[in-house]
Amino acid sequence: MSGVVTKFAVTSMVMWMAPVAIMYGFYYQVFPGASQMSSSAQTLASGFLAIISVNLVIGLFIFMAMKEAPHQEPLPDPTFLTNAKASINQPPSSQVSDDSKGKGKVE
């Protein structure tokens, strides 16, 4: 359980830090070619890349979660199985009650 919490915490931090780092990089022109872009183009590019980075982090988290959980077929209840097998092995019995002993007759 602690592994799940750790992965969630790490991906949550990356989901906050990646867009901020991208916005910072465009604002301070850390990325090559960012200085040649206009101010509005820098804002649009940094915004789109920040959104894409968040979606990539979410996708990575989902991929890790799907990879972690093994696919198992649901197993039936063992008590139900033993009762079902026992009922199959029993000889068939008549479920119609015999009323020949006089039950239900009014004298």
TrEMBL record:
Biological role: Required for the assembly of the V0 complex of the vacuolar ATPase (V-ATPase) in the endoplasmic reticulum.
Name assigned to this protein: Vacuolar ATPase assembly integral membrane protein VMA21 homolog
Compositionally skewed regions (Basic and acidic residues) per UniProt: 98-107
Top-level taxonomy: Eukaryota, Viridiplantae, Streptophyta, Embryophyta, Tracheophyta
Species of the source: Panicum virgatum (Blackwell switchgrass)
Membrane topology, as annotated: Multi-pass membrane protein
Top-level taxonomic group: Eukaryota
UniProt keyword terms in alphabetical order: Cytoplasmic vesicle, Endoplasmic reticulum, Membrane, Transmembrane, Transmembrane helix
Extent of Polar residues compositional bias: 80-97
GO BP, sorted A to Z: vacuolar proton-transporting V-type ATPase complex assembly
Family matches, as InterPro entries: Vma21
Record-level GO cellular component terms: endoplasmic reticulum membrane; endoplasmic reticulum-Golgi intermediate compartment membrane; ER to Golgi transport vesicle membrane
UniProt cross-references to Pfam families, sorted A to Z: VMA21
Subcellular locations according to the entry: Endoplasmic reticulum membrane; Endoplasmic reticulum-Golgi intermediate compartment membrane; Cytoplasmic vesicle, COPII-coated vesicle membrane
Transmembrane segments: 7-27, 47-66
Record region (Disordered): 74-107
Keyword Cytoplasm included in the entry's annotation: no
The keyword Membrane appears for this protein: yes
Family: Belongs to the VMA21 family.
